[in-house]
Design a protein that fits this description.
253 residues; alpha+beta; five-stranded antiparallel β-sheet; 12 strands; binds biotin
């Protein structure tokens, strides 16, 4: 069989490393626009304007955490982007598992939890032309070595770092190497059109599966039972016996 070059994406190659940036997503976006290949990544020691979903800040102190953004050029349309963030969350969860023996969960759409607290978040930003995706910047933040003093009072209650969970300092270079390796394998499957394995991994560790949650959808908050993540990345819920799929939302409780 003829080898398809796109199946060989090396996530994290080349890798640009900075002491301080506004946001690694800004840097990766520039690299994408300069035509750097798929897999190119930008990491930083700290971010002065780290951002999260829903226009939130991502607190990014200089403390040996992971702030990394990867340029991807998947042949997909915009509807497939949520699944790509699920892939990112699975990659992070798998990597954390290699360093921490306890339970690691994915909170839809793309948070990773340890001890039911947030350890990682993913922000996928994309450039499109018409309905085609030109590039996706997958930005990944992992609290590796943050201490609780890095978080403000509200965040303290809901955040954790790998070093807090394990009681020992995490090696950032090693973590990043494993993360790239895991993402590379998952992305290879994804490029081949194999989504089932990734989806199963996400659903096996889905936070609050089969439980009733409050979920903010648009300007409403509803109560529903979480069933599973669908293969487009949306969340299947059951409300009052009726099934519906949520594309954009936030589990609040
Ligand atoms: C979220 O949980 O809302 C997503 C957080 C994503 C944070 C990462 S850190 C690296 C990259 N650069 C950013 O500014 N954001 C992402």
């Amino acid at each position: 069989m003829k080898k398809n070059k796109t199946f060989l994406t090396k996530i994290g190659t080349p890798l640009f490393s900075f002491d301080s940036v506004t946001s690694t997503n800004d840097i990766a976006k520039k690299l994408a626009e300069l035509d750097f290949p798929e897999g190119t990544a930008a990491m930083a020691g700290r971010q002065t304007k780290g951002r999260g979903r829903l226009e939130r800040k991502w607190i990014s102190p200089d403390g040996e955490n992971i702030y990394v953004s990867i340029v991807l050029r998947p042949k997909i349309n915009c509807n497939d982007i949520p699944f790509l963030s699920i892939l990112g969350a699975v990659g992070v969860a798998k990597t954390i598992k290699e360093f921490y023996k306890g339970q690691v969960l994915i909170k839809w759409p793309n948070d990773v939890l340890v001890k039911e607290k947030k350890i990682s978040g993913i922000l996928s930003e994309l450039k499109t032309n018409a309905d085609n995706v030109e590039h996706v910047i997958m930005g990944i933040g992992v609290n590796l070595n943050s201490s609780l003093k890095n978080f403000d009072e509200d965040l303290k209650k809901i955040s954790i770092s790998l070093s807090i969970a394990t009681g020992k300092k995490a090696n950032r270079e090693l973590f990043l190497e494993k993360l790239f390796e895991n993402l590379k394998k998952l992305y290879k499957d994804y490029q081949k059109g194999i989504k089932t394995k990734i989806l199963k991994m996400a659903n096996d560790i889905l936070f609050k599966k089969n439980k009733t949650v409050s979920i903010a959808v648009g300007d409403k908050t509803i109560k529903a039972v979480i069933k599973e993540i669908n293969n487009d990345g949306s969340l299947r819920l059951i409300k009052d016996g009726t099934r519906f799929d949520c594309i954009n939302g936030e589990i609040v409780k």
